User: Fold this.
Amino acid sequence: MKNTSPIAITISRQLGCGGAYVGQQLAKKLNVFYADREIISQAAKQFSVLEEDLTSRDEKKLSFWQSFLRAYAVAPDAYVQPRILPPSDHELFKTESEIISRIAKERSAVIIGRCGSYILRDHPNHISIFLHGNRTYRKSQIQRRYTVTEEAARKMIAQSDKERALYHRTVTGYEWMDARRYDISIDTSKIDFAKSTELIMKYLELI
Assistant:
């Protein structure tokens, strides 16, 4: 890259398309910070919840019943330990946005998911990447990674795609899989994870 200021690479990805692998390899090759669990860890501390509680919320809207309980929760009796409600979609997005923006301001980083491409859209040295693939390939990846049946993998993919699309539309107002929103869109079912990493590195050399 000709620009020597801190670089922010955001990776949006479909389930089973190698987002974590590509992100980790890029961070290693560029010798920059890899931001994934760190975002969850910092957000969990701010909301005083377990990291596992936020891991399950990765780019997902609250369920109907969770939203219902938040909306109609009443103050408990003074002698009862108050129940900690999960953060709303917009509360979580706001907090993760602040964390991602702070990371990108302080250092060069590869940032995985969580609407990073939208959050850092005005960053002066931001490269946004979208990894996608055909369902047959993605199913094979999910079956191998999670040791599940083909049908289970199919359902996981369908649910993940639906939830991520809805979450992105809700908090950003944009369509998650719109290729026009990204600098690079790569089909990792045609170009494997390692070659996808090489392709991104070559792109960085050209800009």
About this structure: The two ends are 5 Å apart (CA to CA). The chain has one domain: 8-68+84-206. The beta strands are 8-13, 33-35, 109-112, 126-132, 184-187.
